[in-house]
Write a structure and sequence with these properties.
Blueprint: H1 2-29, E1 34-37, E2 44-48, E3 52-57, E4 61-66, H2 75-100, H3 112-148, E5 161-162, H4 164-188, H5 193-214
Antiparallel strand pairs: 1-2, 1-5, 2-3, 3-4
């Protein structure tokens, strides 16, 4: 029963981590970190991501333009690019490491201590990946709120608002954190190999003693 529960926890943790990693990759490349709606022209909407800006017009459709220079970007976008790349890489590495530590795989069955360490390392990688995904998304959201309520900007000037990619990034970060926690709980519930062998030897000794007590004494 304990083994089934542990395998289920490992599988759910890995699924949450996989979901978070996919969402973090989408967040990195989606051009919807910020949205801008023009009051003067309601048929034209602007979106901005880490890599390009897009304008959506009802007659023309979507037109996107990549940023020309990395150094010309604002500081939050430059650092967000780096952190999102780091989050994607750590998440992928965590999937590889924790995948080899699953109990459902028949690889290195006798090395349970190694599998436990792989699960713990995978959980740490997922935690780090989740944090590095939440930091840039929350930072851009904070600056967007500050600019939206900035009283020094005239009211006639359009303001940027939250884009769909921010909510995708928050979902990715929390999924990675939850997946890492589940893998850690599954690793902590794994019995030590020394303890399991000790219990097996003790059970064998008890069985031998019971057989000796039941056997009749030989006649002299």
């Amino acid at each position: 029963m304990a083994l089934v529960f542990r395998i289920a926890m490992q599988s759910i943790g890995l699924l949450f981590s996989l979901l978070g990693w996919v969402l973090s990759c989408l967040t990195n490349y989606l051009p919807h970190w910020k949205n801008l709606n023009l009051d003067l022209n309601e048929m034209e909407n602007w979106t901005m991501g880490l890599w390009k800006t897009c304008v959506i017009q009802e007659e023309v459709g979507r037109q996107c333009k990549d940023f020309d220079s990395f150094l010309a970007l604002p500081a939050e976008l430059r650092i967000s690019r780096i952190l999102m790349f780091l989050s994607n890489g750590l998440g992928f590495l965590g999937l590889l490491v924790s995948g080899f530590g699953l109990d459902c795989l028949r690889i290195a069955d006798r090395q349970q201590d190694l599998k436990k360490r792989l699960l713990i390392l995978g959980g740490v990688l997922f935690w780090t990946s989740g944090v590095t995904a939440l930091v840039p998304v929350s930072w851009v959201a904070y600056l967007t709120v500050q600019e939206f309520w900035d009283e020094t900007i005239p009211e006639i000037v359009p303001r940027w608002e939250f884009g769909e990619a921010l909510f995708t990034g928050w979902s990715a970060g929390f999924s990675l954190l939850l997946g890492g926690c589940l893998l850690h709980c599954a690793a902590c519930s794994t019995p030590a190999p020394g303890a399991s062998s000790h219990y097996a030897v003790a059970e064998m000794q008890d069985h031998c003693q019971q057989l000796e007590m039941k056997s009749p004494n030989p006649k002299v």
